[in-house]
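We modelled the chain as a single entity of 101 amino acids. Its sequence is:
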Amino acid sequence: MNAGVNPDLQYNLQEPELPAREDWGKMYWKTWELLVENMGHGSNRNSFSEDYLDAAFNGNIFQLGTCLIVQFASYGFKILPILQSLDNFYQKQEPDGYICR
């Protein structure tokens, strides 16, 4: 276990095997930490899911960015709100099928 890394992440994610590049292991864990730190949260104002993965670009969510993050985060599907991130788009789907952003 790496000191300073979220224990839930370490327990639920694959430990990288990079004996010659310890710095890459640190980068690996930092990437996961940043994903969790930038998790979005729904509110009455935005009517998004309670927790969702966000590209942290601005206050909007974007389908492409969400799809890319969901692909990356699928390795942590046990603890990350992957489906809820996609649900944000389906919850706002127009009656004619259109999904904005």
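As a brief sanity check on the tokenised model: The longest strand covers residues 40-41. The mean pLDDT is 88.
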